[in-house]
Automatic annotation (TrEMBL):
This is P-type Cu(+) transporter. Belongs to the cation transport ATPase (P-type) (TC 3.A.3) family. Type IB subfamily. The chain holds residues 348 to 637 of 690 of the full protein. It is found in: Cell membrane. It comes from the Bacteria.
Amino acid sequence: AAPLVVAVSTSISAKKGLLIRNRADFEGARNLDAVVFDKTGTLTLGEFGVTDVVSAGDYDEEEVLQLAAAIEQNSEHPIATGIVNSAKAKGLSIGKVSGFESITGKGIQGMVDGRKVNVVSPGYVNSNGLDYNSEQFNRLSEEGKTVVFVLVEEQLAGMVALADIVRDTAKEAVAALKEKGIHSIMLTGDNQKVADWVAKQVGIDEVYAEVLPNDKAQQIQRIKDSGRRVAMTGDGVNDAPALATADLGIAIGAGTDVAMETADVILVRSNPNDVVALIDLSKKTYRKLV
Ligand code: ADP
Ligand code: MG
């Protein structure tokens, strides 16, 4: 009867929006110790809005947002969408950019009116020894806002703070996992303070922040090395190696092609509760098998 059970579970899973690409790893979902979630777009909506613009030096706030928006036109990161939309909503004209480049996990750069402009992470600014108002930065971060820095010719022009929205379903999913004795872990490239703030809202047990894209898979390996069976849930290009390293790789929502090609299971909806549904279905399906 075994093949029949599996066939039935396949049609049930399809109806629930769970696409199973790797049966053996799906079977292992019933024995997970921990589920790792990417933050942006998975635990949160990934829809950033600009909340604060702080200028530095001779720049004013409009200029800071304008320069940031010019560069961000070329990026598909949720931070970029938030900055461009906000500049447009304020009616600011957005300049042309040449020589656009992304600095993986740290930000982007390009030329605007003959000047080199960067929009980058706190990590980039710190490792380049640039001075900024750290009191203001800390206050914004502790409010759960993602702060990026705008540099012109490697000099600080200002910072832009953005807020994302935490998914209610993320909170529900983490609570349901806890009830099953499964640990929830966050893995993000964002700042530690922002990560801690979101983790607190959602009820996450463990947080790994400021993790560069290339180090996400290593972090998953370390969790495995601690003797735990772990699933990784994410949507981005950056998440693909981590999805491949995990015992179970789960691509969520309208994720990138790379994430979907790498995952063992694809969740069609962007709903973290479907991670719980998938674990339940694995238990139901394989309990019936010898
Ligand atoms: P996440 O794990 O949240 O998806 P990423 O690895 O994509 O994070 O990015 C990590 C950090 O790099 C961001 O929090 C931001 O500080 C910086 N960053 C990445 N892309 C951009 C961008 N287009 N504009 C500004 N900053 C960026
Ligand atoms: Mg991401």
